[in-house]
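Bumping with the actual sequence this time:
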Amino acid sequence: MITKNIVIRILQQLLLFLITLIIARFTQPQGNGIFSLFITDVSFFVLLLGFCLESGITYFSAKNKITLSQVAALMIPLLFVQVILFFITYYFVAIVFHHTLYKIGLTDKGFLWGLLFIISLIVFNYCNALLSAKKIFFRIVVLNVLTQLIFLTVLFLIYLGVIGNAIVVFKPEVLIPAYTILYAIQAVIAALLVFKNNEEKITWRFDKTIINKDFLHYTAMVYAANLLQFLAYRMDVWLIDYFKTKADVGTYSLAVKIAQLWWLLPQLLSLLLFPLIALEHESVTEDKFKKILKRTVIASVVGAIAAVGAFPVFIHYVMGDIYMPSYIPFIYLLPGVLFFTINILLATRMAGRGNIKINMQASAICFIFILLLDIWLIPMLDIKGAAIASSIGYTISTLYTIIKYQQWIKN
């Protein structure tokens, strides 16, 4: 079962990767920069407004401490609050920082598409958390894969000229709404699957017992850690846009997207291992976990060595020489990205056992280092400076996590 889940998750992520590559290829660096900024804006506010409740739902559902009825009754008023907060933050950023969020073009504003994307992802994350905790999430991933496959097929058919007009379609102001609708469909499918697989009666009455001290504490710690971590590895996109151009954002985003493929395996393992760790299952004893960690690191290093030589060939024949400047940032990113694979699994191990304080501390360290280095290096070294800053931040935060993990094990 674990092997099947890993395979389907890898397929899911690869399809998503292919979609973003096609968008980058045909919108060119400037268009890809606009697309990347929109996704970064949306992802940040999904995290900010979603409050990371999916982590608490997964953790406490796995321990049978909360029910679907409690979560469903919580989501209704919460979504209302999130919509209000969305408009407050949107206009706050516009007025105070004179920056327009969720742009779908150089001049086109797309805050309604941003709202739909954010709500869709929040609903999807909550539903996926419930299904993951109950070990019945395989079907939602299959449907997610099918949805992405259809979208990818449509893009190919447009490119081949079978349907539509590629010149008209391959623009951010067209692709971003289409991509948003894709996720809205997935959110609806996820919600239907949750209710279909539910065996209890849903009362729709808000149960204040779900907002208890343990749930709030756990979720708040994860929330703080994830916010800091998100800013650590995504704020460079905003800073490059501020100091440089959207074309630079597009070029750098491609390097980051490819480098973060090395996080795919540890993130998938984390998703599958987390409920087992929370239940203290025998398949994830300390010795077995260390073996999983060791094999993951070895596989990541071997893949990175091969990628150093393959990257220029891939850019030339697949993405086009216009993206060749992404090679050097990719090389600078690799050491830190490889180190961070360790961080991902160690963080999962400790979070599954209820210890998330160390994760938050490591995220804070990563955020501070990258922020300071970005402000210093980006104006001086362009996107190479952003890559160097990120690599150093990932490495230092991982070393901190390793030291704290060893102390935690001894205690």
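The tokens above came from a reply further down the thread. Residues 265 and 296 are 7 Å apart (CA to CA).
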